[in-house]
């Protein structure tokens, strides 16, 4: 995501003007005045965040890798995910979940000091005296942090409070030099919001087509220092993170299924992303969730909610779902055995199947909240709220609709595009599509390859690029949707693929060559010519001759097609057909053959030769 340039925020706050083109992802328009998102999307490529303020991604594993590692861990622990098992409900019991989400705000400076917010620079290189609580230093509220905070709260449909205040939350830990964290306990800056979740967002089937989850409040607060454990009990501390502005989003206890809880956190990430309010997502440590879990029996309508336990610091969507399931089952087991649930804080580790007790109520810290005497109230001008509301860009639900209905993507692919690379992957997709459209002009190649440009481009932007990230560390995706494989180069590969001038195999090899920089920028077409990689496809007669040769040795299989044609077997033997396609591919010059053409020819020959009287379907 783009960082909001401080100079521009300063200009807005002091002079009432801001260049919102630099603040949002490359879609600087208002939905209300737009006739179509697609139309709006095609804006000048010169618009984008200044490169100097673009954060590089923290050195944590990409989402795809995280998920693979989790799967490996789970496999190693002997706990395979049971397919088609309803783990969302337990008969006789109702689960209730409320979530607290901490998100790092997209600002250049810390909340109460002018030190830069940086995540990849050398440790302890961006620390002001106040961040270390050096005697004599005092907090200076950085008003620009309000811009992403208010944007986030608006995306969550909250009421922005005219006046809010800061409080001190006391606890003693090495990650908090002052001995207290500054937060907004009594008077947060935003209240009473909600999030709409639809079935395509991945909620549990039991929640039907969609649900609305209330947001109790959103508060501004400081992040803590980053701790890295070393052998022999040594802890390394990086104070670059201390004082970085966070928002804490607190939902109401209105979630009743584990998958819905995970879907909510995912949706919060997409929403914050869409208004450029956050630095990075859960997969890179910019978003962390604490889940509060309780259960109660369904046969007592008068009973209030059960006692909650809290599982802290979950750092993946899967962890949110798995930890809730484990904690729900533990609580039910305790209650069914006649025990009581103790209000306590619990932990969860990756690949685990059980939550573990960290501390109980008796060990709970008394935070001794008190208004911070060094900080005045925060007064937010309604005009600022109005301005930010009117310039918040495309809403993710509308964008998902557009990707599905206009571009023909599946809901899963549309949402994946919006999620990946903190929202930059979808911008990359638009860039590829723009470049591909420009090359194709009015000539639609849809009929040639049987797939529209948009779904082909989406498939490559998600799955083929995904394969690269499995073996390499990063695509170096920038917020304006460019990466190591320039969008124009991928468009060039897809252009030749759509026109059937290269095979899919060659297209994949070209992608790798561009990635390894064996092909220079803009050099895809020249590389195809230089390597004579053009697709010189076999003629119909050559395909037919090859198909006939293979069919002659496969009488048994051919007999199955005959049985189907005679109505003796119901299902068309598609598996057998694909087996024959493989045989033909191996029998001929592969670089001159297209599997789709082989399949078409084989089908026609089987219909004509083996089942006389049946017309070819083509
Ligand atoms: N009985 C319950 N079952 C499940 N969730 C609950 C229950 N009661 C409250 N919650 C949820 O617990 C969360 C409480 O968060 P809040 O930040 O207000 O307090 P806290 O957890 O005590 O504070 P912190 O963890 O920030 O120190 C909310 O998300 C709320 O919806
Ligand atoms: Mg809280
Ligand atoms: Mg809590």
Automatic annotation (TrEMBL):
Organism superkingdom: Eukaryota
Compartments, as annotated in UniProt: Mitochondrion
Keyword hit for Mitochondrion: yes
Chief location category: mitochondrion
Matches recorded under Pfam families: GatB_N (PF02934), GatB_Yqey (PF02637)
Keyword terms: ATP-binding, Ligase, Mitochondrion, Nucleotide-binding, Protein biosynthesis
Listed Low complexity bias regions: 43-61
Transmembrane parts of this sequence: none
Region (Disordered): 42-61
SUPFAM superfamilies the UniProt entry points to: GatB/YqeY motif, Glutamine synthetase/guanido kinase
GO biological process: glutaminyl-tRNAGln biosynthesis via transamidation; mitochondrial translation
The reaction(s) this protein catalyses: L-glutamyl-tRNA(Gln) + L-glutamine + ATP + H2O = L-glutaminyl-tRNA(Gln) + L-glutamate + ADP + phosphate + H(+)
Domain Asn/Gln amidotransferase: 443-606
InterPro entries associated with the record: Asn/Gln-tRNA_amidoTrfase_suB/E, Asn/Gln-tRNA_Trfase_suB/E_cat, Asn/Gln_amidotransferase, Asn/Gln_tRNA_amidoTrase-B-like, GatB, Gln-tRNA_amidoTrfase_suB_CS, Gln_synth/guanido_kin_cat_dom
One example GO MF annotation: ATP binding
Self-association and partners: Subunit of the heterotrimeric GatCAB amidotransferase (AdT) complex, composed of A, B and C subunits.
Family: Belongs to the GatB/GatE family. GatB subfamily.
Entry function: Allows the formation of correctly charged Gln-tRNA(Gln) through the transamidation of misacylated Glu-tRNA(Gln) in the mitochondria. The reaction takes place in the presence of glutamine and ATP through an activated gamma-phospho-Glu-tRNA(Gln).
Protein name as it appears in the record: Glutamyl-tRNA(Gln) amidotransferase subunit B, mitochondrial
Lineage: Eukaryota, Fungi, Dikarya, Ascomycota, Pezizomycotina
């Amino acid at each position: 995501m783009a960082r909001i340039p401080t100079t521009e925020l300063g200009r807005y706050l002091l002079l009432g003007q801001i260049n919102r083109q630099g603040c949002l992802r490359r879609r600087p328009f208002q939905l209300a005045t737009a006739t179509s998102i697609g139309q709006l999307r095609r804006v000048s490529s010169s618009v984008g965040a200044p490169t100097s303020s673009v954060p590089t991604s923290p050195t944590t594993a990409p989402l795809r890798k995280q998920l693979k590692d989790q799967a490996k861990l789970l496999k190693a622990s002997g706990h395979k995910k049971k397919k088609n098992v309803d783990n969302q409900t337990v008969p006789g019991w109702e689960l209730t979940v409320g979530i607290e989400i901490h998100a790092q705000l997209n600002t250049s400076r810390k909340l109460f000091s002018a030190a830069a917010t940086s995540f990849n620079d050398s440790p302890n290189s961006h620390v002001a005296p106040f961040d270390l609580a050096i005697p004599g230093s005092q907090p200076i509220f950085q008003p620009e942090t309000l811009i992403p905070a208010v944007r986030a709260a608006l995306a969550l449909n909250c009421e922005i409070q005219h006046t809010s205040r800061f409080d001190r939350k006391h606890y003693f830990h090495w990650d908090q030099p002052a001995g207290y964290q500054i937060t907004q306990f009594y008077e947060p800056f935003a209240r009473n919001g909600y999030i709409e979740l639809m079935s395509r967002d991945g909620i549990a089937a039991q929640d039907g087509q969609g649900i609305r989850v209330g947001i109790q409040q959103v508060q501004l607060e400081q992040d803590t220092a980053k701790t890295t454990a070393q052998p022999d009990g040594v802890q390394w501390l990086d104070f670059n993170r201390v004082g970085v502005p966070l928002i804490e989003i607190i939902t109401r206890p209105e979630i009743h299924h584990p998958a819905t809880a995970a879907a909510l956190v995912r949706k919060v990430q997409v929403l914050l992303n869409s208004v450029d309010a956050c630095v990075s997502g859960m997969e890179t440590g910019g978003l962390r969730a604490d889940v509060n879990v309780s259960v109660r029996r369904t046969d007592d309508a008068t009973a209030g909610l059960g006692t909650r336990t809290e599982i802290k610091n979950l750092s993946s969507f899967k962890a949110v779902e798995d930890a809730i399931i484990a904690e729900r089952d533990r609580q039910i087991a305790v209650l069914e055995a006649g025990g009581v649930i103790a209000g306590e804080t619990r932990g969860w580790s990756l690949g685990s199947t059980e939550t573990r007790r960290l501390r109980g109520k008796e060990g709970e810290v008394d935070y001794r909240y008190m208004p911070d005497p060094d900080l005045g109230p925060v007064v937010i001008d309604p005009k600022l709220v109005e301005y930010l509301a009117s310039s918040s860009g495309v809403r993710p639900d509308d964008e998902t609709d557009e990707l599905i209905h206009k571009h023909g993507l599946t809901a899963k692919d549309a949402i994946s595009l919006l999620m990946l690379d903190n929202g930059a992957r979808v911008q990359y997709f638009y860039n590829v599509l723009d470049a591909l459209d420009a090359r194709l002009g009015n000539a639609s190649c849809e009929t040639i390859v049987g797939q529209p440009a948009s779904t082909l481009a989406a498939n490559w932007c998600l799955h083929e690029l995904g394969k690269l990230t499995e073996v390499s560390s990063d695509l170096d995706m920038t917020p304006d949707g460019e990466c190591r494989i320039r969008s124009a180069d991928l468009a060039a590969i897809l252009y030749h693929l759509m026109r059937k001038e290269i095979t899919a195999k060659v297209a994949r090899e070209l992608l790798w060559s561009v990635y390894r920089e064996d092909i220079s920028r803009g050099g895809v077409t020249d590389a195809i010519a230089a390597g004579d990689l053009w697709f010189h496809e076999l003629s119909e007669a050559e395909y037919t001759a090859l198909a006939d040769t293979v069919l002659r040795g496969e009488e048994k299989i051919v007999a199955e097609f005959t049985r189907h044609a005679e109505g003796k077997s119901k299902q068309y033997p598609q598996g057998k057909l694909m087996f024959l396609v493989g045989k033909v591919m191996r029998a001929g010059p592969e670089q001159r053959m297209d599997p789709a053409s082989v399949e078409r020819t084989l089908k026609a020959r089987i219909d004509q030769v083996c089942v006389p009287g049946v017309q070819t379907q083509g």
